[in-house]
Amino acid sequence: MNNSESTAITIAVVEDNKDLRNSIREILDGAEGVRCVAACATGEEALSVLPALHPAVVFMDINLPGMNGVQCVSQLIELLPQSLVVMLTIQSNINAVFESLQAGACGYLHKPVHADAIVAAARDVVAGGSPMTAGIARQVVQSFKAAPAVGSTTESLPELTEREREVLRLLTEGYLYKEIAEKMGLSWHTVHNHIRHIYEKLHVRSRAQAVAKARGQR
After folding, report:
1. Model pTM?
2. Which domain holds residue 182?
3. Coil, helix or strand for 31?
4. Over its length of 218 residues, how does the chain's per-residue pLDDT go in tens digits?
5. Which of 105, 120, 140 is the last residue of a domain?
6. What CA–CA distances, in Å, run from 205 to 104, 106, 126, 182?
7. Complete DSSP assignment for 110-130
8. Burial of 126 (0-12, 13-18, 19+ CB in 10 A)
9. Alpha-carbon span 12 to 55, nearest angstrom
């Protein structure tokens, strides 16, 4: 293995459609800085194969035969806590979005996914981002704004700094990263770092999980 291969982002694909699965694998194998280590047709196959490969990123179809994508993510995260899962779907049902994010997924892309988008998503999630197709992101934000804040507030999270609690409060109110940066007079990069630290301190992997914790939910 040469040096470029050893430093490449390792990726696994879990997709039941054979043509799409092979297409995504070809896209990844042809892109610089990423390497596809497995392409599985079912959730059961993924749970059997992926723990030995330790992929950095997993692209997971939500509508799998047998065990669905949400169930697979939940179990896969237990086996591979460092792997980052991005869901792939033809649906934009907000309930499915939240189920996936709360199960441990870090992003959500709407199929069909363009070649540049899937490679960018892999790089983004490894860098600490939560890649989402624009339409899905807007639904998530709207649902945050519509949901009442119940249970505990960010003030009951003493492990966070005052600045981190303010960032989390704005997350619970549905603001996007760019909007938080503008509201707090910070750079996008600084907000991104604050959110990464929030996730680490709260032991969560996604915005949905962080918001749920801030609201005193499991």
Report:
1. 0.70
2. 149-214
3. coil
4. 444 556 899 999 999 999 999 999 999 999 999 999 999 999 999 999 999 999 999 999 998 999 999 899 989 988 998 899 999 987 666 677 777 877 888 888 888 888 888 999 999 888 877 888 777 777 766 666 555 554 445 566 878 899 998 998 888 777 777 888 899 999 888 888 888 888 888 888 777 677 777 766 44
5. 140
6. 6, 6, 12, 24
7. ESS--HHHHHHHHHHHHTT--
8. middle
9. 6
Q: Before 112, cis peptide (omega within 30)?
A: yes
Residues 31 and 136 in one domain: yes
The residues that bridge with 38 in the sheet, in sequence order, are: 12
Start-end of H helices in the chain: 3-6, 18-29, 43-49, 69-79, 94-103, 115-126, 134-146, 162-172, 177-184, 188-202, 207-214
Query: Is residue 158 located within the same domain as residue 134?
Result: no
For residue 108, the surrounding DSSP H or E stretch is strand 107-110
Q: Give the residue carrying structure tokens 């899962």.
A: 85
